[in-house]
Design brief:
Layout: E1 3-7, E2 10-12, E3 18-25, E4 31-39, E5 46-52, E6 57-59, E7 67-72, E8 77-82, E9 91-99, E10 104-106, E11 110-114
Parallel strand pairs: 2-11
Antiparallel strand pairs: 1-3, 3-8, 4-5, 4-9, 5-6, 7-8, 9-10, 9-11
Length: 116
């Protein structure tokens, strides 16, 4: 059974940094993409950053130049370095993996709160 477990969330002041990690375990076929999504209270879940098997990265406009997505293939780990955090970055952050059969896996999420 595939499991994705996020970690690294917490409370941080505006302008601060956090590093999220997502550890994947289980039998996942060839991965097409790995990504971070977030959902703020009362809003829809949105894409934050995505990395493809080719290494191509994609970011939401709202986080460009502040967030960096990376992966450690051998460890099946996905990371998100978040700098210059803003109150509007407050949300539950989810990890998502899609394999080449279009099978999709989600983590349970980790809460990030940006507040003074």
């Amino acid at each position: 059974q595939v499991q994705l477990v996020e970690s690294g969330g917490g409370l941080v002041r505006p302008g601060g940094s956090l590093r999220l990690s997502c550890a994947a375990s289980g039998n996942i076929l060839r991965i097409y993409s790995m990504g971070w999504y977030r959902q703020a209270p009362g809003k829809e879940r949105e894409l934050v950053a995505q990395i493809f098997e080719s290494g191509t990265r994609k970011y939401a406009d709202s986080v460009k130049d502040r967030f960096t997505i990376s992966r450690e293939n051998a460890k099946m780990m996905l990371n998100l370095q978040m700098n210059s955090l803003k109150p509007e970055d407050t949300a539950v952050y989810y990890c998502k993996i899609v394999d080449y059969t279009a099978r999709t896996y989600w983590g349970i999420g980790t809460l990030v709160t940006v507040s003074s």
